[in-house]
Structure prediction request, 1062 residues.
Amino acid sequence: MSKTSSLKTNPGNFFEDFRLGQQIRHATPRTVTLGDVALYNGLFGPRFAVQSSDVFAARLGYPRSPLDDFLVFHMVFGKTVPDVSLNAVANLGYADCRFLKAVYPGDTLDAVSEVIGLKENSNKKTGIVYVRSRGFNQNGDAVLDYARWVMARKRDEAAAAPGDLVPALPKSVEPSQLGAACPPVNATAYDTVLSGSPHRFGDYKVGEKIDHVVGITVEDAEHMIATRLYQNTARIHFDHFTESKGRFGKRLIYGGHAISLARALSFNGLGNAFHVAAINGGRHVAPLFAGLTVFAWSEVLATAELPGRNDVGALRLRTVAAKDRPCADFPYKTGEEYDPAVILDLDYWVLMPR
Amino acid sequence: MSKTSSLKTNPGNFFEDFRLGQQIRHATPRTVTLGDVALYNGLFGPRFAVQSSDVFAARLGYPRSPLDDFLVFHMVFGKTVPDVSLNAVANLGYADCRFLKAVYPGDTLDAVSEVIGLKENSNKKTGIVYVRSRGFNQNGDAVLDYARWVMARKRDEAAAAPGDLVPALPKSVEPSQLGAACPPVNATAYDTVLSGSPHRFGDYKVGEKIDHVVGITVEDAEHMIATRLYQNTARIHFDHFTESKGRFGKRLIYGGHAISLARALSFNGLGNAFHVAAINGGRHVAPLFAGLTVFAWSEVLATAELPGRNDVGALRLRTVAAKDRPCADFPYKTGEEYDPAVILDLDYWVLMPR
Amino acid sequence: MSKTSSLKTNPGNFFEDFRLGQQIRHATPRTVTLGDVALYNGLFGPRFAVQSSDVFAARLGYPRSPLDDFLVFHMVFGKTVPDVSLNAVANLGYADCRFLKAVYPGDTLDAVSEVIGLKENSNKKTGIVYVRSRGFNQNGDAVLDYARWVMARKRDEAAAAPGDLVPALPKSVEPSQLGAACPPVNATAYDTVLSGSPHRFGDYKVGEKIDHVVGITVEDAEHMIATRLYQNTARIHFDHFTESKGRFGKRLIYGGHAISLARALSFNGLGNAFHVAAINGGRHVAPLFAGLTVFAWSEVLATAELPGRNDVGALRLRTVAAKDRPCADFPYKTGEEYDPAVILDLDYWVLMPR
Prediction:
């Protein structure tokens, strides 16, 4: 073994490697570019006017089109994988995710995580790791802040639990916490013909459900290109040889891929929801694989004004994505159990012009 | 139903929704970027030097490399889909298409259409809608102008026909109308070694046929990435779940994909045809699906000088694309009937240095 | 035939068309952009910090992130294909490849080759053509210089051999020849947390072997997008219709695709090998096809200081890629014979901070 160097490769962290309060600076800093934006557009097909047109964005008050919020999310998330979830059995959830500053092509992102909770499972083989991850731009401004928890394997079942704390996390982000990444918007300059939808904040009611109608089939080439673009290194997305003998018999698609598809599909019915301001919680209910077609629907869970702002209002949405299952009848849960077609249950806040 | 909002999604227009003279401003304004260009290059592999090299372009008289003309076409076309052809049974044809101004990375495109003809079919279930669509850059300059007609479904068979006019459209664009998007070119600075072909305008004769030799197989990931890049929302290109039970049993490839492939293939034999100045007419003869290989050949239908210009000349070309069928023997028609392998019959003008 | 113009398409050069000392200026000049970089990142997933972050690169002494070295290689290589290897039976090898100047987004590349050797095979049907190819930027600065040899078909078996010389080529590039494309680096500013690996030049020992662990499955859409991006026109990569009846029964993947995958995989264990300075030799041992999963491992063959530089040191590496074969036990050769899973045997120099 003296001539080999498995020691130089990244084995990832196991449950017992984490410590409460531990700060992890992540590799790899990444300058995000117009090239990344084009590839994201080609892979998902979003049509929100603010992110599509520098001219439209500038008319509202942005210096130019910002990056799609989920592209920012995936870029930051990708950095955390080698340190947080390389040995994860499951990505359990997100909470308290806030977009804090708009990101523009040319910005350079890096990320830091803090371990905010640790809870060994009763089987002693795994434990839950809670981290708060933050993305920063080249000026050190936070652009994204979110909590995430994963089930991590232990390297050694006999190892002591490194901590025992389940952190308190909010069920939803308060409206007063929304909007930091959205400059003051000239809502009268917001052209709803160009944006593709006449419906503004005031047109949506709590309880309203919207079928986004269209479905998109996912190909292996697509999700791998996307996931590599984010420098997300989770093996299960890329290695057919190994996964063909594994749990699913095939490559698993990065959960964020379904989020981006659902967001792009949601344009049809939510065309002026130009900014994702926060994610209250998200659950990847079931795995997604290439060859399946993703449909989505949304429900308005709440509406909120933003303290001190009359340019935009916030909708709290639940967007549900399903596989090989059109969503005209809004498939969700029977009792506590999800419809078997559901793959994503995402609770988040979007901003809309008033 | 009171809690649902299918009313917020775009149902598209049906035949009886159109009116003669109706003006439609389309969503979504789109800043085109170097990222879009790279993706287009990766998807189609064009090699025309003007579009490939800023240095080559600048030596000729362009400020920098302009976008591929068909990338501009697809971007403008994509905007018209949600309003014009979401409920189309078939995309019947194009005519009188002129490229009016070069488009550069950083330009923002939007589009407007006017309904110029309406003709109900005798079955009363469908009708033909003729539109003239125009693309504009951020300064309001028209960059593209074309007529297109589609067969649209009626929502209600009992509805009265909304008009009855078949517009007069030219069989071909006049040479005097060509060249607006091509700056004065320093033809002596045009380096035919760098461009990859020694053949200039004067080397092509009417009746000459060119087999472009090479074939390219299309994958589902590729045509979906391209079509989303253009923000073209026609469902039939993306949704395997629905289409597997539909007319073709699979996703149909956007017709423009075959055009871009044929144009890229045509480099081999037409390497100096650096600018598509106009499309006289185009017909998608048969559908194209993933897994098939596209070949192409061209015939010189006419040559023309441009009034007042001695830098460039125009070739009128017919480019025919075929699927799973090499084109060494120029497959086309037997009598009125197309060879079953033919998928595209495109009649257009290109400019070449003299 | 008078009306046809196969004469206008590029038939490529056959063995007897080459002459010793012949200079070939290649089409197509190509401005490389941030879009190309994004697509390359999406297709291969490299994570080297210098190429990922303008900020990281600037801290070291680069004006901004340079292009991935192999992206430069593929772009230059692609230009040589229509003139050098369109009629090649096999791409036999590379040698004496040096990266001479960093390439940045916005640079325009072109290429020239010189025929430096010709050797007819005893069967008189083929011959080996040796060329030295050079890539240049828009200022005429050489950015890349390498020798390559291919087995070319003869058009006419009766044709006389056009020359008879096997050039002397170095087995490896001398350390004094390395580093021209790497500016003086502020190695103390090199942040090994951000770069993702703590291991610097001094931490690697000759004979050390590193399994890069992760595998990546290749899809047809991916390798075709990559190969078209480089404007590489070799038909065998694109045309399933013809290749389904050909030698392999399917499309062959461009050999450079395996190189880029292996380089990206090598990050896991060689995370600070931020620059490929030279390729001593490379062999595509076996063909690669879509659906197969590529794994890789590396061995440190030598270490070297660069004369006059104490910022960086050089590792001479052998990186071996294998298909559908994890590399924990370093598959390579039994005697002279390669393990049947091996597809690539690449001998090259990388630079690392000291």
